[in-house]
Each structure stands twice: as structure tokens, then as C-alpha cells.
Amino acid sequence: MLEKITFPEHEYESVQNWLNKQGYCYTTRVFKEVGKYKVGESYLAPWGDVLRIDDVQIFRKVSDRPFYDEMSDAEKAEIRKYSEDMGLPYEFIRFSRSKMNLQDCFMLEDLFPRSFTNYEERPYGILFYNTQNKDSYDSNHAVIFRDKIRNLSDTLKDILAFYQEKGLTPMIYQSARDNGYFTEIKDDLAKEGFDSWIEEQKFMVLMAENRIAPNESLVVRNVQSWDPSFEQVFIEAEEPWETEVLRKSLDDPNTVLWVAYLEDKPIGVLYCLTDGKVCRGNYVLVSKQHRNVGAGKTLTYHYVEWCKVSGIRKAFHWPDGERPEKIYLEAGFRHVETVYAGRAVYNPQRMTHIQERIVIREEYHVR
Q1: Cα separation of 149 and 63, whole Å?
Q2: Which of 316, 282, 281, 295 is nearest to 237 (CA)?
Q3: Residue 4: φ, ψ to 5°
Q4: Do 350 and 317 belong together in one domain?
Q5: Where are the beta strands (DSSP E) in 245-309?
Q6: Which end of the chain has the least Cβ crowding within 10 Å, N or C?
Q7: Which among 249, 269, 266 is positioned nearest to 258, based on CA atoms?
């Protein structure tokens, strides 16, 4: 979690306006605030921005402060009261919005299916598959890496042949590191018979205080192994394909699972994948019959508290709707970056249409 940087509440709007306008802003720190903020470090602002300290200058006379002539008499007097009049220095700090490096999160996002499905590596990416769980998209898709592709047409043909041979629908995910790539190759995908689209993923990172009040009537347990009673949660949530995903995930020691119980009955699950430093919140699922008792919030509360005591450096989610986003915000997650994730799925009808156009074109040239 990031340390906080404070501002008077009446300055919130003006600071954000300056950041939006010129990309940076200044603040003066006196008395106990002197020495608190370090150059190069990032801090969490009260309104949710992550701010990076770019420069710290130390002065003893208020008249030496940059932009002195632009300050009001009241501002000058306030700084002088807690610095010059007390024989103490003050700091003039320049800061800007910080763009957190999410490359380690993106890597985990691309590779997380390895914890629960089969896969084959290729020079251009990874092919995930599970013929026993065809309805699970996360279990059955290719991830391609832009910088590893030598011939895109050959890559797409190889993916197509691989999944068709296994009786699976060919699907491709863009690497989270290659933001916007599928927009560039939309026409190439279409030529090989793939429909493609873009999904907005708001990456949220844990960096603020956990303000969730858990439902004390629910019992939440950190569970190490699969129990058949968990399956009912997935059935009641109408996502039965996720049963096999969780079952296999628990074979990976890096998967951590919490189960919420109401009167000894499992009603919700939350599980994550971690490498010890970075943690991906994989899934939160609650039985539809019990979605008014705060199970999702309570599970998230316990997950966040575990991240804190386990030394997780960076925990992230990307919410798939407004309701989970509100829960994550309450738990201390903040929106850091939006990724425009490309998705593509093979459409036989599109390919038939393309082939028909080729035949018509060839017949026209023959004539």
C-alpha cells in the first residue's frame, strides 16, 4: 500500500485542475511535514490519484519561495508562522501524477490460466486448452505477443489448426502488454475468418485503506483443497464451467481460496493467484440466492487483509461491472490504468463468405 499525501480539502479541486492543465503542481510543506515526502516516491492523494514527488527545494525565508509575488498575504503569513518565525525551514515541492508500472501485473494477467488448464508454448505465444471444459473461455484461448510474431498470417493459421484439431472454437486474447494491438490487425484477423472486438479493462491496484465492514454473521475460511460442497455455489451462480477451473487451480500452490459460509453452507468463493509479490484477484463468485447478504464484500475484506499481512507488493483486479468496482474501491483498490484488451473468435460463416468472394473474383478474372 502507498503512503498518503495530505492536502486541505478546499485545495482538492484546484490541485486536480492544475494537474489536468499542465501535468504538474506545487505544494508548500512546513513544520512536521518537512522531510516527509521523498523525491521519486509515489503517494496516494485523498481523491484517489497517485502522485509522484518530482522535486523538493528547501528555503528558510518566505521571500525566497518561487512565485512569491503571486501569493496572497494570508498565504505568506501562514508559511512564515510555521517556518521563518520558528527558525525552521520549509519545503517547496513539485509533484505530478504517477503512472504505476504494471508490467508485472500484465505478465501475470497473460499467464494466469497456466494454473488451471493445459497449454503449449509457441514462438509467438501460448495456446491454452482443456477439451473437458469447452465452455470456459479462460481455459481455451491463445495469447499472442506482438513482439514475437514474425508472420501474422502463419500465426493465425497455426492457432486455427491447433484448436480445430482438438474440437475447440479458436479464440485469441491480445497480451495485456500490447494495448490496442487488435485494433491495428483487425483486417488481418478478418481475412483469416476471425471476428474481433475490444474490451475495456480498468486495472485497479490495492493502495488505500480497506473500509469494508464485513458481515460478521458469515464465516470465511481460507481453504487449501477442493470440497464437493463448493460445486453448488457455481451451479446456483449459473456458471458451472468455473467449477473445473477452481478445482484445477487448487492444484497450484500459488492459488489462495476463501469460502464464505452461511449456517455452514458455502455461498461464495474468492480466489487469487500470486507469485509472492504480485497478486491477481482471479474470481469472486456468489450464489444468486445469497447476493444480498454482503458475501462478496466480506470475501474481499478477508482477501485484502491477507494481502497486507502476506507482504504482497501489488494486488490487482479489473472489475467486470459497476457493482464489483464499488466493492473494490471500498476495499482500497484504485484505478491505475485502462487496457483496451483485444479478443478474437473464429467465425466459420465469415470464412465461408470470404471464400465465396474469392471464388467470384477468380471467376470474374477468368472471363
Answers
A1: 60
A2: 295
A3: -95, 150
A4: no
A5: 255-262, 265-274, 278-286
A6: C
A7: 269
Give the separation between CA 188 and CA 139, rounded to whole angstroms.
25
Residue 359, pLDDT score: 42
Residues 195, 345 contacting (CB under 8 angstroms): yes
Closest CA to 272 of 232, 234, 241, 299: 299
Q: Which three cell numbers stand for residue 358?
A: 474469392
Contacts of 195 (CB under 8 A, 6+ apart): 189, 344, 345, 346, 347, 350
Q: Which residues pair with 286 in a beta bridge?
A: 268
141 touches 173 (CB < 8 A): yes
Burial of 83 (0-12, 13-18, 19+ CB in 10 A): buried
Residues 115 and 135 in one domain: yes
**Short-list 163, 160, 156, CA closest to 119:** 163
Q: Distance between CA atoms of 98 and 246, rounded to whole angstroms? A: 35
Mean pLDDT by 10 residues, the chain (367 residues): 88 94 95 94 86 95 95 95 96 90 93 97 98 95 97 97 97 95 96 94 90 96 96 94 95 97 96 94 93 94 95 90 92 90 91 46 42
Residue with cell 510474431: 149
Residue 304 has a CB neighbour count (10 Å cut-off) of 22
**Grid-cell match 476463501, residue found:** 258
CA atoms of 233 and 245, how far apart (whole Å): 13
Angle between helices 322-331 and 295-309 (to 10 degrees): 40
Listed residues 97, 125, 142: the one ending a domain: 97
Same domain, 214 and 324: yes
The rounded distance, in Å, linking the Cα atoms of 62 and 79 is: 7
Residues 266, 293, single domain; the answer is yes
Of 29, 5, 8, the C-alpha closest to 83 is 29
Q: What is the pLDDT of residue 363?
A: 44
**In this structure, is residue 336 part of a structural domain?**
no
Label residue 153 left, alpha or beta by phi (over 0 means left) and psi (-120 to 50 means alpha).
alpha
Residue with cell 508548500: 28
